[in-house]
Every structure is written in C-alpha cells, then in structure tokens.
C-alpha cells in the first residue's frame, strides 16, 4: 500500500510524492521549510502561531481529535525547567498505516512541523517515538534528521536565529499500548510501557514529569501547510469544526487499498470511488471507519455518511485515526469480531482488572460462538462484560476493546444468533 497515486483531493501532506523525492532538497523545492524560515525571519510571535492553529480548526489526527491549537496553548510559557515536544509515530491501530507513509515519503514535513511547534511552545528538545515494527521508515526518518541538522534546520541557533531545537528519533518495540500517550512517555523514559492515570495530563506532567506536548505525526506534518496557505483557507478546505484535509487509510475489500488524502467532510462514497469501489464488484456489508477501536457501521449507512468527526459520530462511530476497513458481503461478522477481540486481549497491558480479565473473557466467548459452542445468552453476556469494561479503566484500550463488541452485536445480531443456533456461519459459502 502506498500513498503514491494521484487519487487524492486537494492533498497537502501527500501531494506530489513519488517515492524518491523525500530528501530535504526536494522538500525545499516544494516550498518546504519556508514556514519555519518566515517565522524566524519575521519574528512571528508564538501567540500568533497558536492563534492561527486555532483558526485552522486542526484537530489531533491520532484518534481523539483534540483541538491542536488549544493543546499547544496548555504549555506553560514561563516554566523554569526543561519542557518536551513528543511526536507519536507509534502507529499500531489495526487498519492504520498513514504515519509510516508520512515519515517514509515526506519526513521533512514532520520535522518542520515539530520545529514550528517547539518554537511556538518555547521547547528545546523533542522526540519522535516510532513504532517498533516499522524499520525502513525509522531509518528513513533518521536520515531526514541528519539532512535537517546538516542544513541548519535543526540544532543550535536554527537559520542563524536565537531558536534552538534538538530533535531525536526513538524506535519502540512494537507494543500497541505504547501508542497511548502516557505509556509512550513511560517507554521513552526506559520503563515498561504502561499507561498512567490522567489527569495529570502530559501538558503538566509528561516526559520525566515535565510539561510535554504530544501530538500525532499527521497533526505535526499539517502545520507547515496551514501556515503557508493561511489558517482560514485550511479551515475552508473542510467544514466547521472539521477543518482541513485528512489522510484515510482504506483497506479491506476495495480494489485499490492505500492512503488517500481528502478534505474532511468528503462523502464516504467518494472515497470508495477513489479506492476503485468494492473488490470484484461485491456488495458492501460493513465498515469500520476509524481504526479497529471504532464501532462498526452497516455499509448502507456508511455510504450515506460524510468523512468528518461529526458526521461519523452521528452514524454511531468515530473518525478515530482515519483507518477505514471495508468488508464485503462474504465477511462473517463473528469471525471479524474474533480477530478484533483477540487483538485487544493480546495487547492489554494488564494493569486494570476489567481490561485484563474482560478482554480475555470476551475473546473466549466470541471464540466459542465462532466454533459452534455458543449459547443463546452469550450475546447479552458479551454486552454486559463490555459495559463493565467501558469507562472503568486507566486508558482508552478498555473502551476500544468494548466498543467493537457492542457495535458488532447491535448491528449484526442476527449473524451471532445464527452461529449459536446452527453452529456455523450465516454467510452463504457460494459468494
Ligand atoms: C490537557 C486536558 N490535555 C485532553 C489531551 C490528552 C491527549 C488528547 C486527547 O486517546 C483515542 C482513543 C483511541 N488538559 C486535556 C488534555 N487532553 N484533555 O488531549 O485526549 P483523550 O484522552 O481524549 O484521548 P487519547 O487518550 O489520546 C486516543 C482512539 O484514539 N484511536 C486510537 C488509535 C490509534 C492510533 C495509532 O495506532 N496511531 O492512532 C482510534 O480510534 O481509541 O479513544 O493528548 O492529553 N484537560
Ligand atoms: Fe492497561 Fe487495559 Fe488498563 Fe489500558 S485499560 S491501562 S491497556 S489494562
């Protein structure tokens, strides 16, 4: 899967990438580092940059959609000690594969975005935490860092200004939970990657207990484009409360899976068209619109839904990280849920009893339904376990494990009941 195609709509981050033009000189030819240069030469104030981000409507692209300008404004300006900037490239959500393409094909957009963030929040040290299972991308990012340092875009007195910023890459070990921001910080500190209680949020107690701003790769990478094109114009690409473009990683039963950058608010049907439609002309059955943590939506409902935070919420799900998993009429929902529930069971860090025990319990129940040993009361029992996990854990993994279970049973209960009654799948085998 690659971002290297021309089927985006108004792309910014993925525009004009051909696989080889990731180097600093290519990025500069595309207008790269001009936002940082302008900020430093014209001594644009941090307040003005943060105000622009607020106007742009940029929201966190990692899953929660928290307003970026607001997050940046939390960073205490006059803090006497070290403050940190952290990028979360620990992309592990099933279905999500956009951040790896950003650091592989346009790494300098991230570096410039982080440098601008550091300037705006008065931070001198940053880290990019990269998922342990992606090696080439990690090496690519290290190369890009070297290029930026050699050209004076990182390091001491950037472009001859008084602004210094040291940025380092850190390669994780591949645990999904390290994508949760506080587990990531623990891991970066060299400890076991387990989430902390929030609050305090990283904004006040982050890396090594110091104020820390942590954003997703795509969020930082959007920043130079916003400042170059103008915050209002960026906002206008999308719709109110849903500014700008978003990269959607579309996978599953479509003809052309891959990353597509489109304005927020683009109809899902349009994204399907860009991705070549359903593979083999089959019918659409179900869509998980925001990474595996997002509740599944029936295909016919999704075909009437726009791709923005509010519209997807109205359809009963979440835009999340923008990973769109499409399932056709041949897919068994019980089997799909079995895969998902195994993932969360496997990835639970084990700190909270509802998550540690509940994910295993749900997995074993879905396993027995799938294998012809289900009981009529199992669906209600699964809902009850999910209820007892959701909202009762330290981090969002508990919710992420519970939501797909509830949504699958709500939207496709007949398939679960058929499995229990007939001890095999409802989906006709001839399809
Ligand atoms: C200061 C406050 N800061 C909130 C900050 C907080 C965080 C951001 C959002 O989960 C979701 C999860 C996954 N003072 C603050 C504050 N903040 N209130 O704002 O916080 P939160 O808690 O809403 O979300 P989260 O814990 O960051 C993220 C979902 O994303 N998800 C995840 C996908 C995984 C990937 C991946 O593999 N790359 O993205 C997908 O749907 O389930 O719900 O920074 O500190 N008062
Ligand atoms: Fe760990 Fe699960 Fe608790 Fe998160 S919810 S801290 S993954 S046990």
From TrEMBL:
Name of the top EC class for this enzyme: translocase
Keyword DNA-binding: no
InterPro entries cross-referenced by the UniProt entry: NADH-UbQ_OxRdtase_51kDa_CS, NADH-UbQ_OxRdtase_suF, Nuo51_FMN-bd, Nuo51_FMN-bd_sf, Nuop51_4Fe4S-bd, Nuop51_4Fe4S-bd_sf, Soluble_ligand-bd
Requisite cofactors: [4Fe-4S] cluster; FMN
Cross-referenced Pfam families: Complex1_51K (PF01512), NADH_4Fe-4S (PF10589), SLBB (PF10531)
Enzyme Commission number(s) from the entry: 7.1.1.-
Keyword entries, A-Z: 4Fe-4S, Flavoprotein, FMN, Iron, Iron-sulfur, Metal-binding, NAD, Oxidoreductase, Quinone, Translocase
Catalytic activity, reaction form: a quinone + NADH + 5 H(+)(in) = a quinol + NAD(+) + 4 H(+)(out)
Record-annotated NADH-ubiquinone oxidoreductase 51kDa subunit iron-sulphur binding domain positions: 334-379
GO molecular function: oxidoreductase activity
Family designation: Belongs to the complex I 51 kDa subunit family.
Main function: NDH-1 shuttles electrons from NADH, via FMN and iron-sulfur (Fe-S) centers, to quinones in the respiratory chain.
Protein name: NADH-quinone oxidoreductase subunit F
């Amino acid at each position: 899967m690659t971002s290297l195609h021309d089927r985006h709509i108004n792309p910014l981050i993925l525009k004009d990438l051909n696989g080889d033009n990731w180097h600093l000189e290519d990025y500069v030819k595309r207008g790269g580092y001009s936002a940082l240069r302008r900020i430093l030469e014209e001594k644009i104030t941090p307040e003005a940059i943060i105000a622009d981000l607020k106007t742009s409507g940029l929201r966190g692209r990692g899953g929660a959609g928290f307003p970026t300008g607001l997050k940046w404004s939390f960073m205490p300006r006059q803090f006497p000690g070290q403050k940190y900037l952290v990028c979360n490239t620990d992309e592990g959500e099933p279905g999500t594969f956009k951040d790896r393409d950003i650091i592989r094909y346009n790494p300098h957009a991230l570096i410039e975005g982080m440098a601008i963030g550091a300037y705006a929040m008065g931070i001198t040290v940053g880290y990019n935490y990269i998922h342990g299972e992606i090696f080439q991308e990690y090496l690519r990012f290290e190369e890009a860092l070297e290029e930026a340092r050699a050209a004076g875009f990182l390091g001491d007195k950037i472009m001859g200004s008084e602004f210094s910023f040291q940025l380092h890459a850190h390669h994780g070990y591949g645990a999904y939970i390290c994508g949760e921001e506080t587990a990531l910080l623990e891991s970066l500190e060299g400890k076991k990657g387990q989430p902390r209680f929030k609050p305090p949020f990283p904004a006040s107690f982050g890396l090594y207990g110091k104020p820390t701003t942590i954003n997703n790769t795509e969020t930082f990478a959007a920043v130079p484009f916003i400042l170059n094109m103008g915050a209002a114009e960026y906002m206008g690409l999308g719709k109110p409360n849903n500014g700008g473009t978003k990269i959607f990683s579309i996978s599953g039963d479509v003809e052309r899976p891959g990353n597509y950058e489109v304005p927020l608010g683009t109809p899902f049907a349009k994204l399907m068209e860009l991705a070549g439609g359903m593979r083999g002309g089959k019918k659409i059955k179900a869509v998980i619109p925001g990474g595996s943590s997002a509740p599944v939506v029936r295909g016919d409902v999704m075909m009437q839904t726009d791709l923005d935070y509010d519209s997807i919420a109205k359809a009963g799900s979440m835009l999340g990280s923008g990973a769109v998993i499409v399932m056709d009429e041949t897919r068994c929902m019980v089997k799909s849920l079995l895969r998902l529930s195994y993932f969360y069971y496997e990835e639970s860090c084990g700190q909270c009893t509802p998550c540690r025990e509940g994910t295993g319990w749900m997995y074993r129940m879905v396993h027995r339904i799938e294998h012809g040993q289900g009981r009529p009361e199992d669906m209600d029992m699964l809902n009850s376990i999910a209820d007892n996990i959701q909202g009762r854990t330290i981090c969002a993994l508990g919710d992420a494990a519970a939501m797909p279970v509830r949504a699958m049973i709500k939207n496709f209960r007949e398939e679960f009941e058929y499995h229990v009654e007939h001890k095999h799948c409802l989906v006709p085998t001839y399809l």
